[in-house]
Amino acid sequence: MVTPYGEKDKTKKQEVAEMFDNIAPKYDFLNHLLSMGIDIGWRKKAINLLKKEKPETILDVATGTADFAIEALQANPKKVVGVDISNDMLAVGRKKIERKGIENLVQLNYGDAENLPFEDGEFDAITVAFGVRNFENLEAGLTEMNRVLKKGKTLFVIEFSKPEHFPIKQLYFFYFKVILPVIGKLVSKDARAYTYLPESVEVFPYGNRFAEILKSCGFSSVEIKPLTFGIASLYIAKK
Q1: Which residue of 17, 21, 179, 207 has the fewest C-beta atoms within 10 A of its own C-beta?
Q2: 81, 57 in Cβ contact below 8 A?
């Protein structure tokens, strides 16, 4: 199992929380810089599909600084709830929400994706962007999301994948393994956070493998939409 720091006395979950606490002040800046803003378009594509569902309640898992949770308001829900295991990331997200004056629509809570503090079938839709890769137990997290999602409703997952064609594949891995860690370390001051990222992508079961895992965790069907030459993928899973 790939972990951020490789500390034997800590679980992956503890290390992931520590890592995101460490990089929280610079996370948004680095996220948009290192992705060259492409991540914004990926989320908008998911939100455009989410709008068609007309959800009243949305859960954003691994919400971080709440970008996806805030964007989800475009679907005109009554409530969006974001959960994350990093208190410092949540603090940044709450400041955004306060600045926008949307505290009555978006609520952020500390919460573990593998043990969600919600009732069965509580939400009309669930979103998670670049979070499932960091779960300590992937199947446990997916099963929990299935539990709190209403029957017939949809989970939207955006996660990194691996381009398979020349020259995108070669450029992608050079950027991910050489350039990204250097910039990430300089700006965030965390030597491991942006080397852990490509390592975690390397071992993540993307594409059809992830779709099969989703089905094994209770989802009835999964559609895969590659994003930007396969750099990332959008998974649309129906309960």
Answers
A1: 179
A2: yes
pLDDT confidence tier of residue 36, bands split at 50, 70 and 90: confident
Query: Tokens representing 191?
Result: 């030597």
pTM of the entire structure? 0.95
Using DSSP bridges, classify how beta strands 221-227 and 232-238 pair: parallel, antiparallel or unpaired.
antiparallel
Judge contact between 130 and 62, C-beta under 8 A. Answer: yes
Give kind and range of the element (H or E) at residue 145: helix 138-148
Confidence at 173, pLDDT banded by 50, 70, 90: confident
Q: Comparing C-alpha atoms, which of 237, 13, 6 is closest to residue 125? A: 237
Neighbours of 20 (CB within 10 A): 24
- Angle in degrees, CA 39, 112, 224, rounded to 5: 40
Domains of the chain from N-terminus onward: 12-238 (3.40.50.150)
